[in-house]
Amino acid sequence: MNITAQRLRQLAWLACALPAVYLTQQALTLSLGANPVEKLEHETGSWALLLLLCCLAVTPLRQLTGWNTLAPLRRTFGLFAFAYACVHVLVYAVLDRSLLWSELLLDLTKRPYVMLGAAAFLALAVLAATSPKVMVKKLGASAWKRLHTLVYAAGVLAVAHFAWLKWDKNLLDRPAMYGAVLALLLAWRLWFVYRSSSGRS
Ligand code: HEM
After folding, report:
1. How far is the C-alpha of 136 from the C-alpha of 133, rounded, in Å?
2. Probe ligand 1: pick from 165, 168, 172, 177, max atoms within 8 Å of CB?
3. DSSP states along the chain
4. How many CB atoms lie within 10 A of CB 18?
5. Ligand 1 centre distance from Cα of residue 93 (Å)
6. Which of 55, 72, 74, 162 could hold 175 in an S-S bridge, CB 3.0 to 4.6 Å?
7. Which residue among 55, 77, 88 is best mutated to probe the pocket of ligand 1, counting the most ligand atoms within 8 A of its Cβ?
8. For the chain, which ranges sit under pLDDT 70?
9. Is the CB of 161 under 6 A from ligand 1?
10. What is the pLDDT at residue 25?
């Protein structure tokens, strides 16, 4: 990796870690507001989704600019999205539901937004587990690439989780915005795949 790529990665690391540092500082100084658990749930969920969209935006940006130095950021953003999702799920299970398995199971089977969130989380976990380079060798490059298109499913499930949550409260502005960005990124990807395959034929 050349120096620019390394610097860029360090900057991305710093940017991704900042919200966590800020939230930890807010939690330690009891400055998370009247409902700290809800605040943590909302912040960690929002960052997980935002970083997932950043991860999906790397390839289109690289294709548009021809700047291949951006490529490693995909993994950085993806892993940070998973890390924020882990904290999000932990806050929900430990602080919100006090690890009461009966309640957790009831939520998982009765609340569609929890089902969608859990499916998104599972997809992110598979992606994170297969992200090391050694896994590319183990699975074979084309199988690995096919498996990693799962990142789009994770994005769709996460946006659906967010939208379902806000539907009742009629607060669909942010889910719609994230959904529009995701649709744009998906459309770009499909168009690029179509263009490459028709170019080849
Ligand atoms: C087992 C998996 C998950 C569970 C149980 C879960 C649960 C929750 C809960 C309880 C809330 C707050 C609900 C409320 O406002 O009353 C929430 C909000 C949210 N979650 Fe999740 N979640 C999961 C996975 C995910 C994942 C994987 C993502 C993103 C990649 C995500 C993104 C969000 C977002 C964006 C919000 C709304 C934040 C806001 O209101 O600003 N969640 N989730």
Report:
1. 5
2. 165
3. --HHHHHHHHHHHHHHHHHHHHHHHHHHTT-S-S-HHHHHHHHHHHHHHHHHHHHHHHHHHHHHH--GGGTTHHHHHHHHHHHHHHHHHHIIIIIISTT-HHHHHHHHHH-HHHHHHHHHHHHHHHHHHT-SHHHHHHH-HHHHHHHTTHHHHHHHHHHHHHHHHHHTTT--HHHHHHHHHHHHHHHHHHHHHHHHHHHH-
4. 11
5. 11
6. 162
7. 88
8. 1-3, 200-201
9. yes
10. 98
pLDDT at residue number 1: 58
CB of 80 sitting under 6 A from ligand 1: no
- 168 CA to centre of ligand 1 in angstroms: 15
pLDDT at 198: 83
* 135 Cα to the center of ligand 1, angstroms: 29
Cβ of 49 closer than 6 Å to ligand 1, yes or no, is yes
For position 56, what pLDDT does the model report? 98
